[in-house]
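S1.2 Input.
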Amino acid sequence: MPLPPPPVERTKLHNRTYDFQGYQRSDGLWDIEGRIVDTKTYAFENDHRGEIKPGEALHDMSIRLTIDDDFVVHDIEAVTDDSPFAICPAVTPNFKTIIGCQIKPGWRQQVRKQISAADGCTHLVEMLGAMATVAFQTLYPVRAKKAGARKPGQRPTLLDTCHAFRSDGPIVKKSWPDFYTGD
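S1.3 Output.
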């Protein structure tokens, strides 16, 4: 269901889009790609780039994260095509420091530990957080199919990960009754 109409007239000034894709590679690894684009609806001056026209990207940045079946990072490419400052693209090689890290609980903290605020880019670091979810969405169905049925008594991976999969909820009651804690 879309948002209801706004209660008052308004003027759009800023647009930020994120775009993510997950790919299965022919070598057994996985690529998770993300892109962020920021635009304004009006022209403005920028010390680095001069006039930025309406709809022209203020930020246009991309990441390709290559991971294995265990969510371990094998490679990362970060690119800054458009930014407000000429020095912004200089930090993209610093993202290589997360090679060898594993996407798991605490991923965002691990990324921030590897890439300090002064050595990174807020937008690229934020995107890595969302890319963890995209990685899970990409790999989970394929991994689940390979693994086959859960062993009896084995806790479902998704149990208590969100409102829908809460252990006392109707979905768990129907799908995994042995793990249902309601009533």
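S1.4 Remarks. The first strand starts at residue 14 and ends at 24.
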